[in-house]
Amino acid sequence: GMNCMTSLSQVYPCSEQPCSQPDAVDCKLGPWEPWGHCMNGKQRMRHRSIEIPASGDGEACDEALTETMGCEAHSEGPADCKFSHWSEWQFCDRTCGGGQTYRQRRVDTPAKPGGAPCEGELLETASCNTHDCSLAKQPCRVSSWSAWSPCTTTCGTGEQLRRRKVLTEAQDGGVGCYLPLTEARGCPESGEGGGEGRPACGKTDCEWA
């Protein structure tokens, strides 16, 4: 048979009236929030938001949503001045004979009306390296040897010790203490060195308990 060649749907215009435009609504801002806390002792901020956005041909909100102001302009009341911490002491300007070093601080937070001002210096000096320059680059000095200690055994082979100590550490680049502070030797046998010495150990037989 023959296929259906006609359309299965038809379209007719139903209205020739133009579409109506939505009513123009202007943007509306909300109220300001309270001022925030002072940041770094310098400024504070407050915010607001858009309550109703513009629609249609309404006017947009072109005013700022954030404001900042100096802390002094909106003081919460009296506040005392505050210093920063002291810095580290600087290097001494002399290596001997008395030099000078310094440290400093700054005013972190100025006093607000009614608060106590900062009292005290911003720079502090002190003397340093006051030792006599004649001691500069002096080597380490050690004491004389002590007497030999008693032998570690009462007869036969043993050991004796003698010691010395550091009297003065090296100064300003002088040679350090590299010499030994302890010395050991074998104990002298009887009659050695012209002295009385120690007796040789005798033989001792094993005994049953």
Automatic annotation (TrEMBL):
<dbReference type="Pfam" id="PF00090">
    <property type="entry name" value="TSP_1"/>
</dbReference>
<protein>
    <recommendedName>
        <fullName>Spondin-like TSP1 domain-containing protein</fullName>
    </recommendedName>
</protein>
<dbReference type="InterPro" id="IPR036383">
    <property type="entry name" value="TSP1_rpt_sf"/>
</dbReference>
<feature type="region of interest" description="Disordered">
    <location>
        <begin position="188"/>
        <end position="209"/>
    </location>
</feature>
<dbReference type="InterPro" id="IPR039942">
    <property type="entry name" value="SBSPO"/>
</dbReference>
<keyword id="KW-1015">Disulfide bond</keyword>
<keyword id="KW-0732">Signal</keyword>
<dbReference type="InterPro" id="IPR044004">
    <property type="entry name" value="TSP1_spondin_dom"/>
</dbReference>
<dbReference type="InterPro" id="IPR000884">
    <property type="entry name" value="TSP1_rpt"/>
</dbReference>
<dbReference type="Pfam" id="PF19028">
    <property type="entry name" value="TSP1_spondin"/>
</dbReference>
<feature type="domain" description="Spondin-like TSP1">
    <location>
        <begin position="140"/>
        <end position="188"/>
    </location>
</feature>
<feature type="domain" description="Spondin-like TSP1">
    <location>
        <begin position="81"/>
        <end position="133"/>
    </location>
</feature>
<keyword id="KW-0325">Glycoprotein</keyword>
